[in-house]
Structure formats: structure tokens, C-alpha cells
Amino acid sequence: MFEVSVENSFSGGHALRGYQGKCENPHGHNYKVQVTVAGDAVNNMGLLVDLKVLKSAMNQAIDRLDHQYLNDIEPFREVNPSTENIARHLYRIINTSLNLETGVSIRLKKVRVWETSTSYATYFE
User: Fold this and answer.
1) Checking DSSP bridges between strand 107-116 and strand 68-69, what pairing results, if any?
2) Which pLDDT value is given to residue 59?
3) To 10 degrees, what angle do helices 51-63 and 83-101 make?
4) How many whole angstroms separate alpha carbon 29 and alpha carbon 25?
5) What is the rounded distance in angstroms from the CA atom of residue 37 to the CA atom of residue 4?
6) Which of 24, 27, 67, 125 does the annotation list as catalytic?
7) Annotated active-site residue in 14, 29, 89, 115
8) Exposure winner among 8, 22, 29, 114, fewest CB in 10 A?
9) Mean pLDDT of the chain
10) Is 74 one of the catalytic residues?
11) R_g over Cα of the chain
């Protein structure tokens, strides 16, 4: 089994509705995102996935969130923009994009989102 990961970051603000504490107030983070794909075979060039395809899928997804107040963006108008929910949201967008763009047998293994340098959430299916 092979795994390939790429990382990037974005900045965004949010407020956690219903939270009892400071995080209920609007505040921001410099999020770091890691996307990992997996597969059991590489192509004839020895690649599981072209990194530029993986980076493009990730960047398109996080560009929609960069420098935004996340509570104003779907699905976060209704769903709390927690790190867990951001990871799930990015997973679903990136998974759809990869299925459309690569045409090869890989799967999105996980999306990990760091809210701080020491705290992260991971989503996978």
C-alpha cells in the first residue's frame, strides 16, 4: 500500500455557536491542512498520483475558505465551523474533485486540519 500526502494552509475566522467560553466569540486561526491519498499500485512512472493534481484539488478546496469568516460560508451557516467539521467538509470536496480529475484507482485516506501548531482533527471514511 502506498500513501502520498500534501500540505498547505489558510487563514480564517469563526465563532463556535453554543460554546461556553472564549471560542464562542469571533476569532481566527492559521489553519494547516494535510491531504493523504492511498492506493495499492503505482502507474508506469512509479507514481500513485501526480502531486500537482493532488495539490490542485486541495488548493481549490481551501481557497474557498481562505481569509473568510467561516460562519458565513456553506455548510457552516448551519453546521458549527469546528476543526472537525472543517476537516469533513474539505474531505468531501477533495474526494469529489479527485474522483473527477484523476481517473485512477486511488482513495482519499484522510484530511487532517490543524487549528494550532499543537491541535488538529482528522476526518476519514
Assistant:
1) unpaired
2) 97
3) 130
4) 13
5) 5
6) 67
7) 115
8) 22
9) 94
10) no
11) 15
For the chain, list the domains and their CATH numbers. Answer: 2-123 (3.30.479.10)
The pTM for the full model equals 0.94
Nearest to residue 37, comparing CAs of 1, 65, 63, 8?
Answer: 1
Distance CA 83, CA 97 (A): 21
The catalytically annotated residue of 7, 23, 24, 27 is 23
Question: Any catalytic annotation for residue 7?
Answer: no
What are 2's three cell numbers? Answer: 502506498
Clarify whether 67 is annotated catalytic. yes
Pure H helices in the chain: 51-63, 83-101
By the 8 A CB rule, do 30 and 116 touch?
no
Amino acid making up residue 78: E
pLDDT digits (tens, 9 = 90+) for 12-61: 999 999 999 999 999 999 999 999 999 988 888 898 999 999 999 999 99
Rounded Cα distance between 89 and 73, Å, is 11
Cα separation values, 61 from 26, 66, 81, 103, 107, Å? 22, 9, 15, 19, 17
